[in-house]
Design brief:
Layout lengths: L17 H20 L18 H20 L19 H5 L5 H26 L17 H27 L5
């Protein structure tokens, strides 16, 4: 049974196997990010605070791109999903961040949610094939590949870092703070 906190986030299991623990923490971080984006007016998705140009909209698109990159491209060796397949990342490495200003909050949320669903499917697929030690099909230039375990830990870190950013932005919008 999954315990859900007052914000609707699934609590990571206190005593589970390695995979369920890692996925529990990843899902918790994803749910925290969704909570920070919930119930806002469209204008709030383009708001930046302090010296940063980060916005919630940019983070939504960035995290969708990161989900696609690590789970589809790296782990499974697939081509990027639309819209990321049409981006010249060498010419515009921050495309995900600034192009979000042209999208509606609904488009951004759908893009991110679809990426999460796709990622979860690809994680399950890889787990069946080789467990957490399953190596990514894509390699670094030196030939090394991260394992599914490494990718999951990296994604937890990615979300946790951006949740801190999202918390600051959300607090500036309406005073909602994290814990």
């Amino acid at each position: 049974m999954t315990n859900v906190d007052e914000q609707g986030r699934p609590e990571p299991p206190l005593a589970a196997d390695e995979f369920d623990t890692l996925m529990g923490f990843l899902e918790y971080q994803r749910a925290t990010f969704a909570w920070k984006c919930a119930g806002l007016e469209a204008s709030s998705f383009g708001l930046a605070v302090a010296a940063s140009s980060m916005t919630l909209g940019g983070m939504l698109k960035h995290l969708a791109a990161v989900e696609d990159s690590w789970f589809s491209e790296w782990l499974r060796g697939r081509n990027p999903e639309p819209p990321f397949d049409a981006v010249d990342w060498d010419a515009d490495p921050d495309w995900d961040w600034h192009s979000a200003a042209k999208d509606t909050p609904e488009q951004l949320l759908t893009l991110w949610q679809d990426a999460v669903v796709r990622s979860n499917f690809l994680i399950a697929e890889a787990l069946l094939e080789g467990g957490l030690g399953q190596l990514a099909r894509r390699t670094w230039p030196d030939g090394r590949s991260p394992s599914l375990r490494w990718i999951l830990c990296h994604m937890i870190e990615e979300y946790a870092r951006h949740n801190g950013h999202a918390d600051l932005i959300r607090e500036s919008v309406d005073g909602l703070i994290g814990e």
